[in-house]
Amino acid sequence: MNAPADSADVRRRNLALVLRYLDAHGPCARTEVAAGTGLVHASVTALVAELIDRGLVREAGSVPSGGRGRPRRLLRLVPERVVILAAQVTLESVHVMAADFRGHVLHRESAPHHAPYGDPRALAAVIGCVTRAAEAAVRDASPDAHVAQLTVAMAGPVVGPGQLVAAAIDFGWHSTDLRALVVDQLPGLDCPVDVVNDANMAALAEYHALAADGVRHPETVAYIKADTGVGGGLLVNGRVHSGSHGMAGEIGHLPIALDGPECRCGTRGCLAMYIGPEPLIHAAGLDAVAESEGGEAALAELDRRLRAGDPDATAALGAAGHALGAAVLGVCGVTDVGEVILGGYLATWGAWLRPGLDARLAGRRALAPDTQPDITFGVLGTEATLRGAFQTCRDALLDDPTSVPALPAPPVNATSP
């Protein structure tokens, strides 16, 4: 009874196996693909034919076989066949990136959202507008490209197949089906739409970028970032662990002080109230800049003052480092992480955070140095979330090449009678 479905699953897995091999090792010949994947040559021939039909692979010339046999025909991926759209919601703006299968950026589009607190429809409208502009630019440049996915990354836990942004502070402390709202704004977009947590995407991107630079990660890694807000992720063996409600790693609302400032999440003393953008802007005396020019301009001014040695800015980051250290201790006590990666402006301003962070961790390090995590700073800056969202979509396509439709058949030339 299950044979047809099982057969389709096997074929899908084998297509993925071949596509991933060509992605990692191409250009190469069919014989090399067979040897590298363990598939028989006849199967590889049929699978490659299907990937060519879908426009994902093409023949790329031939090379001598090294003997008396026929030359080997090489195969390579066709990166321009697929376009991925990745969107990120930041403090004041929506950013959309369109990139081909290899990650070459084809188009960028940004717009301020000015979405009022608690109004997800206003934000969805801006996401829709920016995405439509990016898609139109891609269609103009590459009419045959297949738009494979739109992934929207934003702060807040994302749970379940309904893609609910649960307990997102930007929408009030309740669940919002942002995916449905964005889909309503894009009736002509013929591709899946996904909503993901921005910190989880950045965590994955930084994890792999650091690994490419030679960092050897332990089994369990925590990621903490601050930019739009304060968020984080928990990675186990390189995969995001989201917990029972999508809340694992949401360190921004970890209480670190019993009598701290009241947070909109319903409790007091959350980490976000000490290292989030608004608290840091206030502590550095930059409220007037934020009111007149916006939060992103105020953070840019804070960066300038830090590098100029401004005492108020330096003190604000020193206190933030102590708060961050308290949160790291809490995370380590629960998860026993072997590494903590700091991202967003926590990485950019690591030199100013480090004294307070080290001071808070010093006692535990002295008592149990072998059980304390390494503190690592991210390397991707503002690109981390978009790169993570892109890579997540790309991995999904590599796992299921059948999601890309076959190319239309070329027109048959009419012949005269």
TrEMBL record:
Coiled coil: none
Domain of life: Bacteria
Transmembrane domains' residue ranges: none
Residue ranges annotated for the HTH marR-type domain, each copy included: 17-66
Similarity annotation: Belongs to the ROK (NagC/XylR) family.
PANTHER family linked to this entry: BIFUNCTIONAL UDP-N-ACETYLGLUCOSAMINE 2-EPIMERASE_N-ACETYLMANNOSAMINE KINASE, ROK (REPRESSOR, ORF, KINASE) FAMILY
Protein's UniProt name: ROK family protein
Source species of the chain: Streptomyces hokutonensis
